Amino acid sequence: MKDAKELKLMTTDDAVAQIQDNMILGIGTGSTIELLIPKIAERIQQDNLNVTGVCTSNKSEFLAKQYNINVVDINDITYIDLAIDGADEIDSDLNLIKGGGGALFREKVIDEMARKFIVLADESKMVNYLGETFKLPIEVDKFNWLLVSKKIEAYHDISVERRMNEDIPFITDNGNYILDCELKSKIDPYQLHEFLIHLTGVLETGYFLDMTTQAIIGTQEGIKVINKK
């Protein structure tokens, strides 16, 4: 029986094989990507590739630089060839919930820019509907976070809490708070995203809809590759 780390590690080879010379590569955030970054560096070195990375978090950027991957600022580029990231939930249409690591805004900027967006995950992340097993993260301004959370709770049967890091509020790389929203029943992600994104104080939601090109899933039976229909 393989553990979650082994399943995640299984997905990295297929992803790294898709990196080509002269690519601008979007590098995600999270436990799967921490396993991926050394593999990216190894591929670049082995095949003498010219690859430019752009990272979705300060943590990923720090790690990429440690492995001598050339990293640039998002504002220095106009497109991304390939983005690779993890996910907290994946539905049958390859729609995602992301943001467990608190980098959802930067992840969305980079993944939206990518001509191809690959998601790596273990089989536990596959769900019947978004919000089934994981709370939906929303990045919000510090100024009116409580007002925003009350509006969300009034909209639907949703329980909202501000993310904490031990006893202090979690702060994103952008200096904002994260609200984690427990969806107590199935809800249309398109409708909820549309409602949330128009609330003053909401920067971005953890819904990644119609963005994924391919999901590479690590299962006990091996790798499962799902392409966008």
From TrEMBL:
Pfam families, sorted: Rib_5-P_isom_A
SUPFAM superfamilies: D-ribose-5-phosphate isomerase (RpiA), lid domain, NagB/RpiA/CoA transferase-like
Pathway: Carbohydrate degradation; pentose phosphate pathway; D-ribose 5-phosphate from D-ribulose 5-phosphate (non-oxidative stage): step 1/1
Species name: Staphylococcus hominis
Binding site residues for substrate: T29, G30, S31, T32, D85, G86, A87, D88, K98, G99, G100, G101, K125
Entry protein name: Ribose-5-phosphate isomerase A
Matching PANTHER family: RIBOSE-5-PHOSPHATE ISOMERASE
Similarity comment: family membership: Belongs to the ribose 5-phosphate isomerase family.
Catalytic residues, chain numbering: E107 (proton acceptor)
Oligomer status and interactors: Homodimer.
One of the record's GO cellular component terms: cytosol
